[in-house]
Amino acid sequence: MAFKPNYNFQKAERARAKAQKKQEKLKRKAEARGDEPDGDTAAADTADNAEASAPTDAAPRTDDA
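RESULT FIELD:
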């Protein structure tokens, strides 16, 4: 049987790898400057996780006005 590609998964993996590479590059630059890595990315990650885990029981709001 032929391989069935999963394009969404492949796209997500490429995006994840790109984001990881960017974070590593920023970390190397910060270390080279002698700066401490700012905690904004950690705070943003926790905010994204909290938003993703928020209950979605409410119906979507439509503004017809």
